[in-house]
Design brief:
By secondary structure, the chain is mainly alpha-helical. Helix content is 73%, strand content 0%. The termini are far apart. 14% of the residues are buried. The mean pLDDT is 89.
Length: 152
Amino acid sequence: MLRQQLNDALKAAMLGKDARTVSTVRLILAALKDRDIAARPKGLADGIGEDEIRQMLQSMIKQRRESITMYQQGNRPELAQQEADEIAIIERFLPRQMAEAEITEAVKAAIVATGAAGLKDMGRVMAHLKETYAGQMDFTKASALTKSSLGG
């Protein structure tokens, strides 16, 4: 489904002569093809699954956020804006991201669900969150909230 969305978006962007979207979607498809090729020896002839594609998109967004910081420090606002535009395009293919308040509530619920009592249980809580909210949550924020909630 996600693969089809990407291909459809590429076609639509090409028809609409939207150069930024065309280049960004091509980057996504190239990265996806690389991951598919790497997965073949593991027995995944059809390529990687939807969850792995979402993780790949999340990492692409993370890379661009880091680049934005570097470009802003280097006084290159035009390059920072280009990266921000690419983030907006990539986010179209991901589920809606949870707001900070929603992440806080999800962390509280996960702590209760896993019976976590201290920092030693943080791994169980994070595993529960990743299983339940894959692609919807910023796990860096969730990790910090979990740590502070468990007394870290």
